[in-house]
C-alpha cells in the first residue's frame, strides 16, 4: 500500500475531545519538517539547474491535480506581488482554474491533458516542470512530466510515496514520505504541508539566486497596499541611510520599487 494510504496511527477520532484532536494533528505535523530536511539535496539540484535555465529565459511550471495542483497555483501566484515578476512561475491544475475551488471529476485521470495544458504556454527547452502528486500516481501529472522530459525540459516531481510512478519519469524526484495522515488518506494534511514547504523552498531560493532579494529584503515587491509601501519605505531608509521617512516614501512612490530607488541613489 502507498504510504499516503496507510491507516492513521489514531483511531476513534469521533470520540476524541477537541484538545486531543488538535494535539494529535499537531504531533503529526511536527514530523513534516524533519522529513522535508532530508529532501534538501534533491531540492538543491533542481534549484541550481532551474536557475541556470531561467537566466537564459526559462520558466518553471508547477503542474498537479486536486490539493497538489492548488498548492502549485498558490505558490506561483505569489511570485508577482512578492518579487515583481510575472509569468516566470506558472501554476497549472487539472481541470483548469475552476478546479481551484471545486473538484473536477476525472480531471487527473487523463494522461494527455497535462502536457496539452502546458502547450498553451508555448514551452521551450529552457523551461522546467515540477509535477506535484502526493500519491505519485496521477496520470495527468505523469503524462506531463514524461512529455516534458522528452522535449528536453528539466523535470522534477514532489511526491510523498517511495517508488511512485511519477518518480520514475522525473529527472529529479523530490520524495517526502511523511507517513500516515491523521485522517486516513487525507493528503491535504501532512502531505500538503510537506508540499507547501518544498514549494516555498524552491521559489524563494530561485528568486534569491536570481537577484530579487538584497540582504534579506524583497526589493522588487509590488506596492499594492499601505503595509507594503511602509515596508518599502523602511527598507530604503535602512539601505540608503535616509532618516526622513516622508522623503524615503516619496522616493519609493516616485520610482515604484525599492530596487529602482536604490539604483537611482547609487548613481
Any descriptors?
267 residues; alpha/beta; five-stranded parallel β-sheet; two-stranded antiparallel sheet; 12 helices; 48% helix; 11% strand
Structural summary, described in words:
By secondary structure, this protein is of the alpha/beta class. Helix content is 48%, strand content 11%. The chain has twelve helices and seven strands. It has helices spanning 18-29, 32-37, 40-54, 66-77, 79-83, 113-119, 139-150, 165-169, 190-209, 226-240, 245-255, 258-266, and strands at residues 60-64, 89-93, 128-132, 154-159, 172-175, 213-214, 217-218. It has a five-stranded parallel β-sheet with strand order 2-1-3-4-5, with helices on both faces. Helix 8 links the parallel strand 4 and strand 5. Helix 4 packs parallel to helix 9, helix 6 crosses helix 7 (139-150) and helix 10 (226-240) packs across helix 11. The longest helix is centred in the last third of the chain and has 20 residues, at 190-209. The N and C termini lie far apart (62 Å).
Amino acid at each position: 500500500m502507498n504510504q499516503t494510504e496507510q491507516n492513521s496511527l489514531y483511531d476513534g477520532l469521533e470520540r476524541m475531545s477537541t484538545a486531543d484532536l488538535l494535539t494529535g494533528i499537531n504531533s503529526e505535523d511536527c514530523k513534516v519538517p524533519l522529513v522535508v530536511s532530508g529532501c534538501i539535496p534533491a531540492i538543491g539540484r533542481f534549484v541550481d539547474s532551474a536557475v541556470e535555465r531561467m537566466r537564459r529565459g526559462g520558466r518553471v511550471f508547477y503542474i498537479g491535480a486536486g490539493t497538489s495542483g492548488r498548492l502549485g497555483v498558490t505558490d506561483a501566484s505569489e511570485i508577482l506581488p512578492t518579487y515583481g515578476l510575472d509569468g516566470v512561475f506558472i501554476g497549472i491544475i487539472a481541470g483548469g482554474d475552476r478546479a481551484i475551488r471545486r473538484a473536477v471529476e476525472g480531471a487527473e485521470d487523463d494522461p494527455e491533458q497535462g502536457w496539452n495544458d502546458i502547450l498553451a504556454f508555448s514551452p521551450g527547452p529552457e523551461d522546467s516542470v515540477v509535477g506535484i502528486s502526493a500519491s505519485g500516481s496521477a496520470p495527468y501529472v505523469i503524462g506531463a512530466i514524461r512529455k516534458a522530459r522528452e522535449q528536453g525540459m528539466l523535470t522534477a516531481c514532489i511526491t510523498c510515496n517511495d517508488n511512485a510512478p511519477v518518480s520514475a519519469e522525473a529527472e529529479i524526484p523530490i520524495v517526502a514520505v511523511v507517513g500516515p495522515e491523521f485522517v486516513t488518506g487525507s493528503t491535504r494534511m501532512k502531505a500538503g504541508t510537506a508540499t507547501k514547504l518544498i514549494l516555498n523552498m524552491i521559489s524563494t531560493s530561485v528568486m534569491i539566486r536570481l537577484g530579487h532579494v538584497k540582504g534579506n529584503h524583497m526589493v522588487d515587491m509590488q506596492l499594492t497596499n499601505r503595509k507594503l509601501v511602509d515596508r518599502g519605505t523602511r527598507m530604503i531608509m535602512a539601505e540608503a541611510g535616509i532618516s526622513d521617512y516622508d522623503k524615503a516614501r516619496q522616493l519609493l512612490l516616485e520610482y515604484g520599487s525599492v530596487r529602482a530607488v536604490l539604483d537611482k541613489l547609487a548613481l
